[in-house]
Design a protein that fits this description.
The chain is mainly α. The chain has 7 helices and no strands. It has one domain.
Length: about 170
């Protein structure tokens, strides 16, 4: 079994074995939550000087935890009820653990504060996190086809963005 920091690095490297490991480790939910919190904090710091300082770091972190849970739940429903494959046997905990670790590349958002390279880095990390999320979904839902995982993520993205926009108005 990998250590916590090995899991973070492995998830950032898009290592499917790490996603399989956390999917099957019931005790990894707390670790997944910590990864989401670290990614959120790094993102808040990375946005300093870009209008991010008016956004409460604590409120942003809580919002990210809520959105993570909701997107995992939406993904679970879509992946197990609408687009399951015959071998799909998943529960919400598996989606929470794998998608939580999919936030690992977001820890690099802390470097978004750097002049010149900050904005491109934030964009790159956003796409990197999306790729990790697709991989996490594919592994948690036992898909053999990445395109199906992409479809689940795209379908889930619509209610996810609606929720994010509502939270942005509230916070």
């Amino acid at each position: 079994m990998s250590s916590f920091h090995e899991r973070i690095i492995g998830a950032a490297k898009l290592d499917i074995h790490i996603f399989e490991e956390v999917e099957n480790d019931f005790s990894a939910l707390g670790q997944a939550m910590i990864v989401v919190v670290l990614s959120s904090l790094a993102g808040s710091i990375g946005l300093l000087g870009r209008g991010g300082e008016s956004f409460s770091i604590i409120a942003g972190t809580v919002a990210n935890l809520v959105v993570w849970f909701l997107w995992a739940w939406i993904t679970y429903l879509i992946g197990t009820r609408i687009l399951p494959m015959p071998q799909t046997h998943a529960d919400l905990g598996q989606l929470l653990r794998t998608t939580g670790f999919a936030a690992a590349p977001g820890i690099l958002k802390i470097f978004g504060v750097l002049p010149i390279v900050g904005t491109p880095l934030l964009i790159l990390v956003g796409f990197w996190m999306l790729a990790a999320f697709v991989l996490a979904v594919r592994q948690a839902l036992d898909y053999t086809n990445t395109f199906r995982a992409v479809g689940v993520c795209l379908i889930g993205w619509i209610p996810y963005m609606a929720i994010v926009s509502i939270l942005n108005r509230i916070i």
